[in-house]
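Deliverable D2.4 — example input (structure tokens):
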């Protein structure tokens, strides 16, 4: 059975699982990646993964929810390998060949309704900086010539605004046809220029 790591519990004890990580602490305790070459920094319930237990992937999320947390989907759970914040990844530089980021895309004041409870939320005044910090961290842990996949839904924030937060132009992308546009963007790290 795969060992699960809760970075919050490891650093601060089980009684405080709401702590947001400080970069200075994480820098002293990088997580060993071993045979893991792929990182999903916002895995949620791993909906788009064909293999939800891919042996070379680390699944990470800030949340951990047991089955039954969604009344209309009793078997859904959020069970990351590592519980952590995508804005402060607990990994050394250039550890992964592929990094996937599917962050929350709804502006809200918390888990007030089904969608925010299931997928998380962004705060109105912080979303731009949170996305930019998250992408910068994904870029930092991505190996040279590695691929970064970014998924976005325009429920609250339009594609142009989130691409401004990302800062760099994607190589290519693909919209998913639906009432609310979902977009997939692909980037490649072709040099070691720092993101921020």
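Example output (designed residues):
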């Amino acid at each position: 059975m795969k060992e699960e790591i809760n970075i919050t519990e490891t650093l601060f004890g089980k009684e405080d699982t709401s702590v947001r990580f400080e970069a200075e602490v994480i820098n002293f305790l990088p997580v060993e990646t071993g045979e893991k070459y792929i990182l999903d920094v916002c895995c949620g319930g791993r909906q788009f993964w064909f293999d939800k237990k891919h042996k070379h992937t680390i699944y990470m999320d800030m949340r951990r929810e047991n089955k039954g947390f969604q009344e209309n989907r009793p078997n859904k759970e959020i069970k990351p390998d590592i519980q952590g914040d995508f804005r402060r990844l607990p990994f050394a530089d250039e550890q992964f060949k592929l990094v996937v980021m599917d962050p929350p895309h709804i502006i809200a004041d918390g888990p007030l309704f089904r969608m925010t409870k299931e997928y998380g939320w962004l705060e109105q005044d912080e979303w731009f900086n949170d996305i930019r910090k998250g992408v910068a961290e994904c870029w930092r842990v991505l190996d040279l010539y590695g691929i970064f996949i970014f998924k976005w839904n325009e429920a609250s924030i339009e594609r142009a605004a989130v691409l401004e937060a990302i800062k760099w132009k994607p190589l290519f992308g693909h919209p998913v046809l639906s009432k609310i546009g979902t977009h997939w963007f692909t980037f490649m790290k072709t040099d070691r220029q720092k993101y921020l």
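The first helix runs from residue 7 to 12.
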